[in-house]
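Explain this record to help learners:
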Amino acid sequence: MEDQKQREQASPEVWKRVQDSFDRQGLMSHLGARISHIAPGRVHIVLPSRPEVTQQNGYFHAGATSAIADSAGGYAAFTLFPEGTDVLSVEYKINLLAPAVGDHIEAIGTVLKSGRTLTVCTLEVFGVQDGRRKLVANGQQTLIRANRQAQ
């Protein structure tokens, strides 16, 4: 079942809508994060290791780890929202389970319950070193669907 979810892809229209929104996020650009997978109700974001995203001991900083987890969950919810809407985080809780080390970290946001107004997502962050993945953080998030504001 997990392999099937990994292979499932969002439609080209949803992929473009999510990627266009992600590209407008200054923080994700500043961190060097990128989307690696978009499926209905599921988004993966990768953050390569570099000194600018680490803390004093060389681990990925909790702020960087949390930021990509928040965005992965937000965009997972956004994949299920209709055109003309937007997504905002209401709250999230993250547990840091182990020091985040590796070539990169990968955050996976997965919709647990999609509602008309509120959506709940699970968040996982893995440290990836030489293809081996280790769970370094997990959490839960609530998001709200909002009407898109004119820009």
Notes: The chain has a mean pLDDT of 94. The chain has one domain: 2-147. Helices lie at 2-7, 12-23, 26-31, 62-78. The domain at 2-147 is CATH 3.10.129.10 (Thiol Ester Dehydrase; Chain A).
